[in-house]
Amino acid sequence: MAVLHSAPRIASNEGVQAALSAALGTMLVAAKEEFGEIVLTVARERVEDALRLLRDAHEYQQLMEIAGVDYPSRAERFEVVYMLLSVTKNHRILVKTTASESTPVPTVTTLWPVAGWLEREVFDMYGVVFAGNPDLRRILTDYGFEGHPFRKDFPLTGYVELRYSEENKRVVYEPVKLAQDLRSFDFMSPWEGADYVLPGDEKAAEKPAAPPVAEAKTTDSPKQTGAGAPADAKAADKVAPSATTTGTVSGQGQGQGQSAPNPRPIDKAEPGAPDPTAKRPDRPADGGASANGGSGPAPEGS
User: Fold this and answer.
1) pLDDT (tens digit, 9 = 90+) per residue, 49-60?
2) Its pTM surpasses 0.70
3) Distance between CA atoms of residues 299 and 121, nearest Å
4) End-to-end CA distance of the chain
5) Sequence-distant (≥ 6) Cβ neighbours of residue 247 within 8 angstroms
6) CATH classification of 16-131, choosing from 3.30.565.10, 3.30.470.20, 3.30.460.80, 3.30.499.10?
């Protein structure tokens, strides 16, 4: 059974930018297609009118999200981005406007009541003020929170810290106290070809590398240790014969009559293996240790 739906499965951007740009007219500041999406920038004071036109005349019925962006180097550092969805066209567009810390953006709660929560998030995280929002309060941070965490110049540690005070028996706010200053990191990996010397390696960088070995030296016999004449003479000393043919020199091999090359010289013969352990006598079949330490049959009734 085939299911028919008015919205296409895949929506195309062909002709959408030109049609929406013509419809917005003077409200439009810029339009572009980027990363497969249509992005429309509108004048801040006309944002409500532009979104009403897109909702009513071009079937972008749903406001999916409102996001904020911070560009500290710009005069109007903030961008407020409205993400719209057309249910009938299965198509999405982005509508942007710019603002500064002192220029409020008109609220769109008159178009979508859900915008009240979304505008509060942008206000809390970035500090953008929405004129006409009936309940513009912080929504993600605490009541006494200072600053706006998503601003690029907001410190990583914040301005105040919260803790429970045993002395006051309540939660208190205090200025942040760092036990150690934040370290500045160089994000260039040293093992990927850094062109600087790491701290502590200055002497290693000044000392030239050792030249490679021109010729490998080898020895012709086990007597030549490679450590000089005194070591060669010591290695040539003989080991005293073992006292028994079944013993081994300690640490110099295993098995009967086996010895390792170049054994260490010793002053006396190595002892042979010890005699086998004597066989332990069998335990009495009916015996066991009595309570008083003697041996014998256990008393009756025990």
Assistant:
1) 999 999 999 999
2) no
3) 90
4) 89
5) 270, 271, 272, 273
6) 3.30.460.80
